[in-house]
Design goal:
Helices cover about 25% and strands about 30% of the residues. The protein is an alpha/beta fold.
Length: about 270
């Protein structure tokens, strides 16, 4: 009889929701997922798809901050999808679980197969994604679960962004977080599907190179690309998050498209 995989239960948004995650292996959610979730903004029953959701961190963070949002988590790994289901079953997440559904699905599917897997055409107001962004040859790992979450394959952004374009409603928003090295591939994949691309470089400290980019785009828009001011995480002499970043990380603020950051009344 095989042992049950080890796991942890971790608090996010200062205890507003909890996540069941693998212990000592696989991908463990952190700041990337919280920044991605902060990019979702809207009122009412906003329908959000989280592609490559893992245990559900980004999608749950959206549901925790937006009390009427309906979130679908799409994850190819059966084991990580099961962690997401365990997450939704936690009593601490009871207030959110009724608005979040897990789908075990390959987000690179096309056409009828994609729809059958629950990735329904023209169904969502917002799609978020945190795709694998380590080149396979650069970052080998004996941890198969982590490899699925972290290893990029050729054409990945084209495949994932194609799916986002299919499942978003006209005028819907795509948001993603990636490494700066992928910027050209992301812009090319948006192609004629998306316009109004907004890119925010994320820096650990002022004067250092960006280590992430936040990208958003609108389905069917013909607006031009814009480069937004940098988002800096720490003061030069500190490891603590700057106030805005701390608010984004803990669900007290959103980072909407091309506008003033909105802070929640929590």
């Amino acid at each position: 009889m095989s042992a049950m995989p080890e796991k942890t239960i971790d608090a996010f948004h200062r205890g507003r929701f909890f996540l069941v995650q693998p212990k000592g292996r696989g991908h463990r959610a952190g700041m990337d997922a919280m920044l991605l979730a902060a990019m979702v903004e809207g009122d009412g029953r906003l329908k959000v798809a989280d592609l490559g959701a893992g245990a559900g961190a980004a999608g749950l963070a959206v549901a925790a901050r937006l009390p009427q949002a309906e979130v679908r988590l799409y994850e190819i790994s059966a084991e990580m999808a099961d962690f997401a289901r365990q997450t939704l079953a936690l009593a601490e997440n009871a207030a959110l679980s009724g608005r979040v559904v897990v789908h075990e699905a390959d987000v690179t599917l096309k056409g009828a197969a994609r729809n059958t897997a629950g990735l329904t055409d023209d169904a969502f107001d917002h799609v978020i994604m945190n795709p694998p962004f380590n080149w396979t040859a650069d970052r080998r790992t004996p941890d198969a679960l982590k490899g699925v979450a972290h290893a990029m394959t050729d054409g990945l952004f084209e495949q994932w962004i194609r799916t986002a374009g299919a499942i978003l409603k006209p005028g819907g928003v795509l948001s993603l977080i990636a490494r700066p090295q992928s910027i050209g591939e992301i812009i090319a994949a948006c192609g004629k599907r998306f316009g109004g691309i907004e890119i925010t470089p994320v820096h650990a400290r002022s004067g250092e190179e960006a280590f992430r980019i936040l990208v958003s785009a609108v389905k069917g828009s013909r607006a031009r690309l814009s480069l937004r001011p940098a988002l800096v995480m720490h003061a030069s002499d500190s490891h603590a998050f700057l106030p805005l970043v701390d608010d984004l990380n803990n669900g007290r603020a959103s980072y909407p498209r091309n506008g003033v950051t909105r802070r929640a009344n929590l």
